[in-house]
Structure formats: C-alpha cells, structure tokens
Specification:
The chain is mainly α and 219 residues long. The chain contains 10 helices and 2 strands. A two-stranded antiparallel ribbon has the order 1-2.
C-alpha cells in the first residue's frame, strides 16, 4: 500500500494512530510547555543577557529541535531548554561563581561537543543506565518541583520571607486564588481521566482569569 505524506514524514500510521488524538496531544503539549517562553528569559536575563533575545532564541531552538525530532526520529516528542540546567547556568555559574555569561556559554558549547561525542560512541547511554533508577526518577521529580515553585512564585502563592526565606502569599484573592482554582480544576480533570485534561484546565483557568480581570477593570 502506498505511503501517505504523513506516514512518510512523521511515521503516522492510520491503523495505529488517530489524527484527532495526535492533534489534541500536540496542542496539549504546546500549551503545557509554553511557560518556557516566559520562564527561560526571566531566569537567563539575570546574567545580563537581553531578555528579548533570550525569548527569541528560546522559541527558535525549541521549534527547530522539535521539528527535527518529528522528521528525523519520527517521535511525538517536544523539546525545549531544560529548566534545571538554565537555573544552574544563571544562578550557580554566573551569579554564584562569578563567570560572565559569555564564558558560561562557551562552556555550554564545549559541553555540547562532548555530549555529541558521547552519544555517537554510545557512552552516554551507558552512563545514563549506570545511574540507579530511583535517582533518575527523582531528578525528574526535582525538576518538576522546581518548575512548580517558580509557578507558585509568579502566582503569588510563595513570597520572600526574611525569617524563613520562603513564606505563604495571599491565597484568598488575586493571582494566588486563581492559581489554586486552576490547580483544583486540572487535578480534578486528571483524576476523572478527562481527555486533554491539562489543556482543558489551562483554557478554563485562562477564561476564569480573563473574566475576573474584566469584572474588576471594566466599568
């Protein structure tokens, strides 16, 4: 049977895949990871780099590598800058250790060359699988908690406290309350196993926030 364009380019098989499911999954993936467009420039700009330039390169790199993943590897995976590494780059290498962002970027470039070499020689895979499974899983959890913490900061749920470093923000009004509403909606949808729960949660929270803003700012 003659292959379709979708099957040739992306490995899409009508007998195994559903176009509706794939499109919905694509939109869900995009909206759940689009936060990187705001968070990455916010973090990296602390090193002195231009925030607008970081935003642009974040979008370009994420788009290019995701397209390569689709066309070359034929896998439905979206790629973007890693939250753990960009925080290490900004807060540890540049701010704590005192290196300029130019020097830090050169180190990243050299690291990339070494990473490619390790990948081509299959050494990278051996290193990864030499790490205990529980530790590999905890790394994912740690990055997830870090992203959650950033979201709670931006939403006003977590604020700076001189005594304890971290304090509880306002949760009964404003963005803090909206964050809680959004989390409850999304968690309920996930518990109910609603298709596209994350995407639906994002849309509903956005609509609630928009109506809230209109009611308080329009006369």
């Amino acid at each position: 049977m003659k292959k379709t364009i979708l099957q040739t380019l992306f490995g899409f098989d009508r007998q195994k895949h559903s176009a509706k499911t794939e499109v919905l999954a694509g939109f869900t993936t995009f909206f759940t990871m689009a936060y990187i467009l705001a968070v990455n420039p916010e973090i990296i700009s602390n090193t002195g780099m231009d925030k607008g330039a970081v935003f642009t390169i974040t979008a370009l790199v994420s788009g290019v590598v995701t397209i390569l993943m689709a066309l070359y590897a034929k896998l439905p995976l979206a790629l973007a800058p890693g939250m753990g590494l960009n925080a290490f780059f900004a807060y540890t290498v540049c701010m704590a250790m005192g290196y300029s962002w130019q020097t830090a970027l050169m180190a990243v470039f050299v690291e990339g060359l070494i990473f490619i070499l390790l990948t081509l020689t299959n050494v990278r895979e051996k290193i990864v699988y030499s790490i205990p499974l529980c530790l590999r899983q905890s790394i994912c959890v740690g990055i997830g908690m870090f992203v959650l913490f950033l979201g709670m900061q931006n939403g006003g749920l977590v604020i700076k406290n001189e005594g304890t470093l971290v304090g509880l923000g306002t949760i009964t009004q404003g963005s803090g309350l909206l964050c809680i509403i959004g989390l409850l909606i999304t968690a309920t949808l996930l518990y109910k196993k609603v298709t596209g729960a994350l995407l639906v949660g994002i849309i509903l929270t956005t609509l609630i926030g928009t109506m809230w803003w209109l009611l308080n700012n329009c006369t």
